[in-house]
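Here is the promised in-class demo. Please do not try to memorize the tokens; focus on the logic of going from shape to residues.
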């Protein structure tokens, strides 16, 4: 099977996670998902109201108003969230997290991102994570990341 254009824009790990998510939504094992299946799983997981990115993807799926296969699901997710392999995609993701548009993702924004993603780390653990990124990635500050640092962290192998 030839990979889609969307497949080329995300990491192998992201691809696997999206495939697992799709399979979770595909309640009847048909190889396609429809808005009813998606709503049911989102409600069960408590994600429906908590994550704006998931909300945007749901809106795109509702807009299709029909069952879709994995390749179309993958394309919708990548178009909504942005790809992680291009500067434009990373910039779009960074912009989503940089709520006050000051060019830095700071601790408050980092906490909000963690909440959106369902992360349960407390503030101390999030601070430690930022400090580790500062040490391991040689960022300018341990209190936030600019776009170049964010890109370096995301693209680090």
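The designed amino acids, position by position:
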């Amino acid at each position: 099977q030839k990979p889609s254009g969307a497949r080329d824009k995300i990491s192998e790990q992201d691809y696997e996670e999206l495939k697992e998510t799709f399979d979770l939504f595909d309640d009847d094992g048909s190889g396609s998902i429809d808005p009813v299946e998606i709503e049911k799983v989102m409600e069960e997981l408590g994600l429906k109201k908590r994550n704006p990115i998931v909300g945007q993807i749901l809106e795109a799926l509702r807009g299709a108003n029909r069952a879709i296969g994995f390749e179309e699901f993958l394309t919708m997710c990548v178009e909504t969230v942005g790809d992680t392999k291009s500067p434009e995609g990373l910039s779009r993701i960074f912009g989503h997290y940089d709520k006050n548009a000051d060019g830095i993702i700071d601790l408050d924004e980092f906490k909000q991102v963690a909440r959106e993603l369902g992360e349960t780390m407390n503030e101390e653990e999030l601070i430690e994570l930022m400090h580790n990124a500062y040490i391991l990635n040689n960022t300018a500050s341990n209190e936030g990341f600019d776009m170049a640092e964010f890109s370096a962290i995301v693209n680090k192998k």
